[in-house]
């Protein structure tokens, strides 16, 4: 056995390697060891055919290494396997020196070069060694910083987004903001579709919305934090972030899957306010069953490494068919101890309403942001009443009351119940 190509996990885990774990399906007549070799070599020093010039030093210092080939069917005897196809987990280790902290090159190593390797695989998990992780910034504020920013100690935080999503002028958006902020919501953000268009430019929008927040604060005593969307051409991200901050924004939002994770990292290293990472555009990365990257990596570990303080995620309760295991793994990747990286606040969006508050809090606890949209803006008594209805559902859950009891005690819940009744989980 080629000892430069093969290694045990115990031997490589303390060295400077990232270890990718992949799922793939092969025909019964395909040799999994040859496929794993194609990945380990083809993603590093070689290609699908032997080429001259590859030295032993290159192989020793830069070649990928096969850590494990796991039969998903645990049978040890060939007579026990009758399927025409076989499923495997490959674990491949790649030297950090090949890409250092350059995330685009690491992702290219992990997932690129498919035509050369002729392997279709889905990246399920990624081990990142401590020295490499330390070179990524991680969240600047994290959970504790976000809670302090909105002065909320224990309950889940509440976020709403301006609806309609796009097409309105600044004055219209500011009016929606003000009427929503009267309900005492913690955050109001732009929709992910609204960036810096001519009909609603970022600079003027930030000024108008911050002013609307202050006017509502004078009435409610609760200051609502505005989170503008700075998503744009990557060359304009820093300028947009600075425009937002200089005009009063205390946090910003970025569609990190669309601009790239390195765009998120770049902004994190340039600003001194929290960043909300939005998953918009991430679906093509993880929706393939046999290719791409798992959602808990794309929406969890990687944006946490790159510096998001809040990450918007989907849940199984809003119509999008995300598996519950993946949603829970994503939250684990955002919140569990991970070297020195602060925990990220998961923001649960997509069909959030008073009827799913119990389910989300039971699944995830209180250290989350609940992000209803239509349940607020479409409330028959107005957006402020929609906010109060959400707070009533949260208070009921925190105090051990049933939702039915909360509805009987809240006119806002009663008035909006028709929108979500039957959608409780």
UniProtKB/TrEMBL annotation:
Record flagged with keyword Magnesium: yes
Keyword vocabulary terms for this entry: Magnesium, Metal-binding
Ribulose bisphosphate carboxylase large subunit ferrodoxin-like N-terminal domain residues: 15-131
One Pfam family matching this protein: RuBisCO_large
Superkingdom of origin: Bacteria
UniProt domain Ribulose bisphosphate carboxylase large subunit C-terminal: residue ranges: 145-416
PROSITE patterns assigned to the protein according to its UniProt record, in alphabetical order: RUBISCO_LARGE
Cofactor(s) demanded: Mg(2+)
Family classification: Belongs to the RuBisCO large chain family.
Protein name: RuBisCO large subunit C-terminal-like domain-containing protein
Lineage: Bacteria, Bacillati, Bacillota, Clostridia, Lachnospirales
